[in-house]
Design goal:
176 residues, mainly alpha, 6 helices, elongated
Amino acid sequence: MMNPLKRLRLLFVMMVLSGLAGCASQPPQPVQIERISPEQLAALVPPAQSILSLEEIVSMSKKGKTDTEIIEAIKQSQSRYSLTPSEVLSWHQKGISKGVLDYMQQANALAQQNAIADEINKREKARVEAETRLKRERDSARLRSMDPWFYGGPGYYGGPWGYRPYWGGGMGWRYW
């Protein structure tokens, strides 16, 4: 036979442990990152287009135009160049200055980054809109279920709490 104090202590320990078990929750889910595949990336990044040819840039350099004038001509023509390191070296040997070649590489990299950022922003906006819509639907359902005059359950006296029998005081009056 157990001592009543030991029983009380055991009961208290069991209540505390069951309370702690009831408070346990699932760990938060890690954030899902939607990756862009190489095929999607190739479709996103605009292809380099050169309206002002590299030969024209070489001739402008040989005519004595400064780097800023050549860069301004490239900006005006909205040309972009995708050059490999060996092509950069080759065009430098043909007469294009390092400053112009650096600008060409930076402008192409910036255009690629902007295209990727636009796609990421578009996806994030769609995700936020979907999340907002789901929250609105959840709140609407919550409010509907709290409305005592919302009869969505079985029978005339149904509702969010299910069927409630008629507890009247006679003459059709109903007490809640």
